[in-house]
Amino acid sequence: MNSKVQGVIVCGVIAASLAGMLVFLNKTGGDDKKEESSAADSAAFSEAEAEHYYVLDRDEADITAVTAVNEAGGFTLDKPASGKSSWTIEEITSINQNKTLIDDVISKCGLLEASKIAEEDASELAKYGLDEPLASFTVSYNDGSSKTVLVGDTAPDTKYSYVKLEDSSTVYMMLNVRLSHFIGGANEFAALTLIPKPASDAEWPDYGKETITRSDWDYQVVFENDPKDIEGMLSSQVISEPIFAYLNITGSSEVTHGMWGLTASACECVAPSDEQLKGYGLDEPRCTVTLKGDDYDYKLKVGGEAFDPTVAEQDTPVLLGYYCTIEGVTGCNAVYVIPEASLPWINFKIEEVISNLMTTNYLVDLAEMSIEFDGEKTVYEMTTNGGSTDTDENGKAADVTAVTSDGKDIDVYEYKSLYQYIMSCPTNEICFDDPEGEAQVVIRETRKDGGEDVIELYKDTARRYVVKLNGKTSFRIQSTWVDNLKTNMENLKNGKKVNDTY
To answer: Given a cut of 60, is residue 23 above it in pLDDT?
Structure first.
């Protein structure tokens, strides 16, 4: 008798004996023995379940090739030869491959374990789906021999499938997880991390310029480093096209830095032709992202939607992601499926990534600020305790100590409130259409270093003004903000409180 089968029978006898003893104990010892009964039954079951049958048992070093044939196309895995650094899936040599999956295949082929014997001398293979196997794979060895494993139907206990060696009549039940690699195609061995994410802050490359175009835009969006490089800003990048704006780090970081760590969920097509690219919607992509720096030049194209093919046509489609290509990365000449969550560029809005600050000038850095309202100009001149430095003679942080307008002293506290009100000018609606006529309001912030920022407000509608920031049309704001600005200027002039609501 097969020693493994004999072992199972022995385990069955032991389990039966244990069960009989426990029944007796339960009758004589009461309910306090139920927990012991359950534990013993589980132990006996686990011992029986731990029996394994080696369908393949050969040293991994003897394996020279693995060839799989299945409905997905199969694959050919060759042993490293001269000039090759590792095992290679021959059908996808032009792209990076997942070495972990490949190593797992070799490991399983060295010692391929089944959990049960379905039938030792099977004559009717059809009942196991082994007359016309779902898949097969052949393992070749360095002595010229080979073994072919046939994969049949799923067993009633669906975690198993039936398998047999081609030259044997014994049918085994093998866990599906041990067979998963052998029923798929070559593309499943593609490496899916397209651009690695730096392991530490020190390894991040210098940021260059990111440009985004989309089929639903008639403009492009550009992110680059802040030219002022202002210390203390949450984000080191700004949006420079189609408007200039500072970024909020919460909404912008995935858009500006999401290319690093970009990972696909599947590889759809290797070395695609122009016709294939068209079929995936990549001849006219919905979104293109370029990211260029000193040592990198990436281009991501996002095409059509990728739906789960296993969902029936009459059911609600399940979106897996979008078909994409990536250029500028060695070994990625393929069409990949990338989940929507990893593609922030396809649906973000500018308003979601910019901060609520039009300018970032610290008050102590300004020499003066002027506000021209309907042709009437008011100039505010400031004195700081730190002069032109960041600290005063006692090492304390510089602060505005005096403000004058038309030769008269202005309440410093209320002036700070006015400046804070100006800094909070709303940026929640972007605008690219140049306004007509002359600016009704011009706010000019002149810094001690000679630079300046200019905010111009143009009447648009009864309830809206268009804002030009440093000569570029950028935002549309509520007229109530402008009305309250005028009121606040009057309040400051007359020694009244500045109101920050509008």
So the answer is: no
